[in-house]
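Lab notebook: predicted structure, single chain.

Context: the supervisor wants predicted structures on file for every construct in the current expression panel, including those that have not yet been purified. This is the next one on the list. No modifications to the sequence; it matches the entry in the shared construct table.
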Amino acid sequence: MYIIIGGLEIFTLDNLGIVADIIGILGFMLTILLLYRSNSLHKLIAQKYAYNKEREKSRQVIQAIRNGISDDGVFNERSVSQLRIILFSSNEKFSSLNKGRDKKHIKKTLKLLESPIDEIDKQQLCVELDYFIARYGRDEN
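Prediction complete. Output recorded below exactly as produced.
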């Protein structure tokens, strides 16, 4: 038997079954894809929530270190360690939220902190810390 539309034979009943099977398979594949994407979105939302919880604390620590460097000239191994922990943590936990520019500043700051403490360019370090203070002051919604 044929399906006739406008005088044209479009499908036989056998062909219609094959088309239905293909559409069913495509629908199943689309469902799998959408499940994967929704899981990825769920992870991203969870990461943004964690970022928003930690960013203010990180900003305050970086601000205190930055003020210590510029106001009092205080910069020691503890400060270096705190900065490294914050930057490594940010780089690992929030890699999908960090933009290329953020990653560049993280890398540059970590490179500065590799030097012996008395050889660190404190003016350049303050410039990098200013970036992170501004970055962590911005809400990621």
